[in-house]
Write a structure and sequence with these properties.
Largest sheet: 5 strands, parallel
Number of helices: 6
Strand order of the largest sheet: 3-2-1-4-5
Radius of gyration: 19 Å
Structural class: alpha/beta
Strand content: 15-25%
């Protein structure tokens, strides 16, 4: 049996565990002469408070949420609602631009002959990763894990574990930093 791997997706949240998975995914892509797809998901607005906004140490995010508090979500006047909608759009655009820039810098210095595609999506990470993999014909997903205990994973859950359960393709889970690997030509 021969398995052909042409497209590898590596979702990243820019953490150390994700960076480790990116290196591993790049090594696999190099070995199989596959395209490497780097994917970053910006979560829905209810969890954006905890997401880095890549702009001046979070100033854009803090200003946006402060303006929502000051204006109050209920009883917004039409003009205030329009201003709020514009502020929301600008905030999300800033997040997307920052994430795109950071994603563009990933691996720039250490891979040269790989075909790398980068994408930023909005939504629920598990759903978006699986949707991207399905829509773009991924042969494999490579994801990092933070190595939480089984109890912590059971109580909190993990994006990696949930992707593993519903992915349309095989998922390689790379635990950081327990596993060292080398690229052999």
């Amino acid at each position: 049996m021969h398995v052909e791997i042409r497209h590898i997706c590596v979702p990243t949240d820019f953490s150390d565990a994700a960076d480790h998975a990116v290196h591993y995914g790049a090594a696999l892509a190099h070995h199989h002469r596959a395209d490497l797809h780097l994917l970053h998901i910006l979560e829905h607005a209810d969890v954006l408070v905890h997401h880095p906004d890549f702009s001046a140490h979070g100033e854009v995010g803090r200003a946006y949420f402060r303006s929502l508090e000051e204006n109050g979500a209920e009883g917004l006047l039409p003009k205030a609602a329009a201003d709020s909608e514009q502020a929301t759009h600008q905030f999300l655009k800033t997040l997307e631009t920052g994430a795109t820039q950071q994603l563009g810098a990933v691996g720039r210095d250490w891979w040269t002959e790989l075909q790398v595609r980068r994408a930023v999506r909005f939504g629920h990470p598990v759903e978006e990763i699986c949707h991207y993999a399905n829509k773009n014909g991924m042969d494999m997903i490579v994801m990092g894990t933070h190595g939480r205990s089984a109890l912590s994973s059971l109580l909190v859950g993990s994006v990696t574990e949930r992707v593993l359960r519903i992915s349309p393709c095989p998922v390689v889970v790379v635990r950081h930093p327990d596993h060292e690997y080398t690229l052999v030509d």
